[in-house]
Amino acid sequence: MELLRGKTLLIIGLGLIGGSLAKALKRNGAGVTVFACGRNQEQLETALLDGSIDGWCIDPVELSLQADIILLAVPVLSVKPLLQTLKGNMKAGAIITDAASVKGRIVEDFKATLGDDYRFFIPGHPIAGSERSGYSASRDDLFVNRKVILTPMAAAEPLAVRTVAALWQVCGAEVHGMQVQRHDEVLAATSHLPHLLAYTLVNTLLGHGAQREQQQQVFDYAAGGFADFTRIASSDPLMWRDIFLSNQTATVSILDIYIQDLQRMRELILQAEGDTLRQEFQRARQARNQFINRFDANRNREGNGRRDRPANIQEADNMDYLARPGGQVKGDIRVPGDKSISHRAIILGALAQGVTRVSGFLEGEDSLHTLQAFRDMGVVITGPENGELSIYGVGRKGLQAPRKPLYLGNSGTAMRLLCGLLAAQTFDSELSGDKSLNRRPMRRVSEPLQKMGAVVETDEQGTPPLRIKGAKLHGIDYVMPMASAQVKSCLLLAALYAEGETRITEPAPCRDHTERMLSGFSYPLQRSDEGRVCTIAGGHELQATDIDVPADISSAAFFLVAATITPGAELRLRHVGVNPTRTGIIHLLQAMGADIRLENTSQAGGEPVADILVRHAPLHGINVPEAEIPLAIDEFPVFFIAAACAAGETILHGAEELRVKESDRIQAMADGLSILGIENETFADGIRIRGGDIRGGEINSKGDHRIAMAFAVASLRAAEPIVIRDCANVATSFPGFLTLANAVGMQVSVQGRN
């Protein structure tokens, strides 16, 4: 890690964490001079003999002026007096970080001592430890595949953030970012409360006063369960005293909830509610098993060389929807952020110089997989929290080789875009996805990339996983055989690194989010022929910017159709992206007679946005113009529901792309419409739908989120309930769909399957 090479680190507190960091830095050849400061001279001398450190002191002032980085690995309440000692005794621009599991108190003490404008203070917390303490318990692999959370302040120097991140990454850790308050809330629930319970249970069984001698014999009959539950009560009492006193608010808040739950369990036992108890235990057992599986996968994935999914992204169990007829559609809502723009914000923000702050980010699984991929390549990202995140860009040449294959779930956008980006790096990489993504065609990106000099290997069918060897690329003049924003964006990202110019011509207009966002990041490009030709030269740098992600028109489309087909409906959708390369669904519905109006139009980060007002209107069938197909490619499943409710026939040709989405969307929709009594005929490149009365029935969504949501909308005009199978993937693109659907008057619920 070049950021660390030649630096001097002073670790104050050479215990489990400090000692393990010192050992890991030396084992991994980080090129860092490591000094240590502590009160135990014997341990310091042992560390020097071990080769873990290069020097030591008792008084930190002896070595603090030599340190480029200072790590405070001491109990929380010891930090403030230590900072007072260091004040005025540090090198100019020295980076200060810590390892405490409480951040709010640390930040307060730092501001009180050194002021709130110190740009080189980067609070940190390695989530790794042991019930044992001291240097003798330290290990050089303690942080491998463990998370380290950084909570940088708003004014933090980006290079300081990247340097502290590198300190942990070189030790094998996965660095995440959080806001200070959120960190303390999460750790109170997942770490602090369990320790409090363990200490308390031991003391409860131990008894007090005269009871103590009698209760002592209880331990004679304690088995493995007691040992497992109370293991963490062997941890350092001083450290945990400081933690609880420093994180009072968050700990007491979660403790109050726990006490309420204990009282509820007490009543269930007293009332002999056996069935309810069993259900509670079963729910807890399933949740705990899911956690253990994810935790073990996280710990073992380095040794296995690959993984099924990121440990911090939980794939939902199989689930079905029950959509009842008779719902209404009224209200004023904002759907989640645009997925296409969310992907690109992460990608370009990571490659930029400086800090990119994003609002409105879509917290769906697809976008989170992209976020995780860049964390795996060394980018520090704080959040997302309520759609907001900060990306500490590493520059165009700053990505690091991932230690494992990058798993992208169900996201074809992420895979195709990252293929172009990674083809131009100096390291090798591999991209994989879930079963659905691993069946999708990738030669449409691998073949033009190969013309640029890339080395991209697919399986025999041209599908993932993709094995990419870093290579030097050169510009090309490429005429796309089909309009595809993913292919175009893939080539644009590769072109950022290519020698010379790359010229891309699209046969018909398709999404231009990448071009707009590149301009927002100050990267020069030229567009001509009404935007259908884009020319870009490699070698320029991207500059960080703020991005406001508008609401996703693909998500809004389900509600546009829902309101259009429901008598008496009136719905307002706020701050929706109405990029002209995305508004095909509006044009098609209006051509069928829909009452859709755009109001309050404005710009958000270079993207046009508007509020959309939609009222019920009778529809009639149309012949879909081929020019509109690229502008509505993701919205066709729900458009087919509108066609099923329209008078006459709707005919679509020229949409063979729908055959190779998350499912064969033409066939999946045709099968479902037939079950619901809607006459249809499929073609190789489209479908004919005759509007009619919708029956109830059971639909297989094929695991395709847009198919599932489309048939949920169909229930508004159904005569009987519609059961929709295999709906778990809705979370990939539209988290909160059921909540919003029911908020506006639809009647859709989940039926889980284990």
What does this molecule look like?
This protein has 754 residues and is of the alpha/beta class. A hairpin with a 2-residue loop joins strand 25 and strand 26 (607-615).
Layout of helices and strands:
Layout: E1 8-12, H1 16-27, E2 33-37, H2 41-50, E3 55-57, H3 61-64, E4 69-72, H4 79-86, E5 95-98, H5 104-114, E6 121-122, E7 124-126, E8 147-150, H6 158-169, E9 174-177, H7 180-206, H8 211-216, H9 224-230, H10 237-246, H11 248-270, H12 274-304, E10 319-323, E11 330-333, H13 339-351, E12 353-359, H14 365-376, E13 380-385, E14 388-394, E15 406-407, H15 412-422, E16 429-432, H16 443-451, E17 455-457, E18 466-469, E19 477-479, H17 485-495, E20 501-505, H18 513-520, E21 526-528, E22 533-537, E23 546-548, H19 553-565, E24 570-577, H20 584-591, E25 595-604, E26 607-615, H21 636-644, E27 649-652, H22 665-675, E28 680-683, E29 686-690, E30 697-700, H23 705-714, E31 722-725, H24 730-733, H25 737-743, E32 748-752
**Overall body shape:** globular
Number of strands: 32
Instruction: Tell me the distance between the termini.
Output: 45 Å
Strand order of the largest sheet: 3-2-1-4-5-6
Low-confidence stretches: 300-316
Question: What would the average pLDDT be, to the nearest integer?
Answer: 91
Which secondary-structure class do the elements indicate?
alpha/beta
Strand content: 15-25%
Biggest beta sheet summary:
6 strands, parallel
Radius of gyration: 29 Å
Helix content: 25-40%
Total of helices: 25
